[in-house]
Design goal:
Layout lengths: L3 E10 L2 E11 L4 E5 L6 H9 L6 E6 L2 E2 L10 E4 L11 H11 L4 H14 L15 H13 L5 E5 L7 H18 L2 E6 L2 H7 L2 E6 L2 E6 L1 H6 L4 H6 L6 E8 L2 E4 L2 E4 L11 E6 L4 E17 L3 E8 L4 E7 L10 E6 L5 E3 L10
């Protein structure tokens, strides 16, 4: 096990900076999730740790060693890919055993390690099968077993659940979290899925445009996003954003007025971007004026998309027993002012909030 440290790390492809001056420490034994949209640089960052991409600038360390110029095979990391990358002509046992053969490990020790890894992941009865005879979830567990059998310093996981159906994703997600806690191996997990990030990571590092936007535990990211990108990206759906201007004790928006809440009174002045989670809004008789755009029934809750006067769209989260509105109907959206967030003209969180 070991920490991973990015110090001013950049990766350029020609004139394009896929990763730009990344400063990030993954502590020993931590499961850190790199989260962001496609093209944000998260997979490139992971591949630099693996040695599959060269570092253009900065210093990348695993443990106490700078690894910028260390061959991938000498970094003592194990990578789990989205595509499983299993050998179709080999049995499950041989697939798990493959990295140990490359290390020229003694046959008896290999057999013991394969049995231990297979037992940990519930693969004991599948050792004689080939990948084509397995389900997607079983193949992913074989890929995980092949990674843990090496007992590496660091696990690197690149969207490993993307090819699984919804039910298998939930189960395999739980398996990975349980496995990582049991082994205590430093793990970097790449995903674009906010649910995976929120439920798996000790901390989440949000990236956009090759730059680190914020790194924090899931609860802090959700409750105190550093900027409008993190606010809107994190959550399902993300935070609602409204342009407003303070005038006296009111926040004026194109769709109506909101009372300035006490927690923002001393720090707001002039134009501001307001943020509020869907659970901080409700359908009401006073508030912001608009119409019903879309109603999504999601079992225990309903998400009501509302088009407000002035062009903004917000999502209201309701309980399953709330009255279901009708598409196109006029609506008034009430705002829990105590739940408001405030962001300045540059998109960053207003100091003191």
């Amino acid at each position: 096990m070991a920490k991973v440290l990015f110090e001013g790390v950049s990766k350029r492809f020609g004139d394009v900076a896929a990763v730009d001056k990344l400063d990030l420490e993954i502590t020993d034994g931590e499961l850190l999730v790199l989260l962001g949209p496609s093209g944000c640089g998260k997979t490139t960052a992971l591949r630099m740790v693996a040695g599959l991409e060269e570092v253009s600038d900065g210093s990348l360390s695993i443990g106490d060693d700078v690894v910028n110029d260390v061959d991938p095979k000498d970094r003592d990391v194990a990578m789990v890919f989205q595509s499983y990358a299993l050998y179709p002509h080999m049995t499950v046992a041989r697939n798990i055993e493959f990295p140990l053969r490359q290390q020229r490990m003694d046959a008896a020790e290999r057999t013991a390690k394969v049995a231990e890894a297979a037992g940990t992941l519930g693969l004991g009865e599948l050792l004689d099968r080939k990948p084509g005879q397995l389900s997607g979830g079983q193949r992913q567990r074989v890929a995980l077993a092949r990674a843990i059998v090496r007992d590496p310093k660091v696990f690197l996981m690149d969207e490993p659940l993307s090819n699984l159906d919804a039910k298998l994703r939930v189960q395999t997600r739980a398996d990975i979290v349980s496995l990582q806690r049991r082994l205590g191996t430093t793990t970097i997990y790449v995903t674009h899925d906010q649910v995976e990030a929120m439920t798996m990571g000790h901390r989440i590092a949000v990236m956009q445009g090759g730059k680190l936007q914020q790194v924090a535990p899931p609860e802090e990211l959700y409750e105190r996003p550093a900027n409008t990108f993190v606010a809107a990206f994190l959550g399902s759906p993300g935070m609602n954003l409204l342009e407003a201007e303070r005038v006296g004790d009111k926040l004026i928006t194109p769709a109506g007025e909101i009372n300035v809440p006490e927690h923002l009174s001393a720090v707001l002045d002039g134009p501001v971007t307001l943020g509020i989670r869907p659970e901080g809004l409700h359908l009401s008789t006073s508030g912001l004026v608009g119409s019903i755009l879309l109603v999504e029934m999601l079992g225990a809750e309903t998400q009501v998309h509302c088009s407000l006067e002035g062009g903004a769209t917000v999502v209201v989260r309701q309980g399953h027993d709330a009255q279901r509105p009708t598409l196109g109907d006029p609506v008034v959206v009430g705002v829990d002012a105590a739940a408001l967030h405030a962001f300045g003209p540059d998109g960053t969180r207003v100091a003191g909030t």
